[in-house]
């Protein structure tokens, strides 16, 4: 066998190895998601809808999802993308000052994208650079 054939077979073997590895990883992630899907869990669907699981029908692969108080929709079980974990507020967030519109107005700082009186506009700068002195001007 020539070296090129050996290299091609090695590349093919690597591709097959990574395909099986990724398949097993996806299967493991799916099983972990299904173990977290219980009644009362907050979830997000593939199409971005958030809700709380009311009930799961294993035979029909349907999930009753409450998207608003009193509004329950039936969706396919596989459309649930992930279980949403509640976020815990950090104590560090309370210590950092938050700058809002009133703070910017008090300090006199312009808002993002707002020009100050001292700054020439870009139109004025371009007009100044494009003007050439006339023949009578010296």
From TrEMBL:
Belongs to the YajC family. Keywords: Cell membrane, Membrane, Protein transport, Translocation, Transmembrane, Transmembrane helix, Transport. The chain crosses the membrane at residues 6-23. It holds the Pfam family YajC. The gene is yajC. Its main location: membrane. Residues 86-138 are annotated as: Disordered. This is Preprotein translocase subunit YajC.
